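It is worth pausing here to work through a concrete case rather than discussing structure prediction in the abstract. The textbook approach is simple: state the sequence, then state the predicted structure, then interpret. We follow exactly that order.
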Amino acid sequence: MGQTGGMSENRKDVAARHEAVCKNFSRIVDGVRDWSAPTPVEGWQAVDVVRHLVEWSRGMFGSVEGVTFGQIGSVDADPADVWRHHCEQMQMLLENSKADNLVLENEHFGKQPLVDAVANYYVPDVFMHSWDLATATGQESGLDSAICHQMLEGMEKQEEMLRASGQFGTRQPVADDVSSEQRLAAFIGRDPYWAPPAE
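Step two, the predicted structure:
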């Protein structure tokens, strides 16, 4: 999902990937009936998945000179509406040619083109959290198995660095016959067999 070499990501390609990943996540969001439902992320309810994606991305990318996000309301009041507006604003940012010249400077990720940062950190995060929200609310994740496999291979090559970042939990054991998305979930510290508690 992110860079494979030293060249900057093509903005139109990143915009297309963002649109596709967010379209699937939006489908899951629209299917949520209980925003207080527990999720595979310990201590998180369904609403917290949306809160996480919205807050960290707007905080990071909104700090870039030349980026201005509009108001989107309260996640707690209407998670689906907030997500829809946030997604639209991120897409508009990527479709604007001015984004080609924007640079993110961050203490954790250093200095890099904004488009690369979106491709490397945000789009994969939306992709992976799609499993969390879908699993929490009894929906199909809709994740492409080939992309799951590709992401896992890339992350395994950087495992030591990723673990050191503190952003991922302990890798969980999986059986040989689990799906590629379950393997990806296990790598980032989720219980790949997690299911909502019985009512």
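Step three, interpretation. The chain has a mean pLDDT of 91. The domain at 11-143 is CATH 1.20.120.450 (Four Helix Bundle (Hemerythrin (Met), subunit A)).
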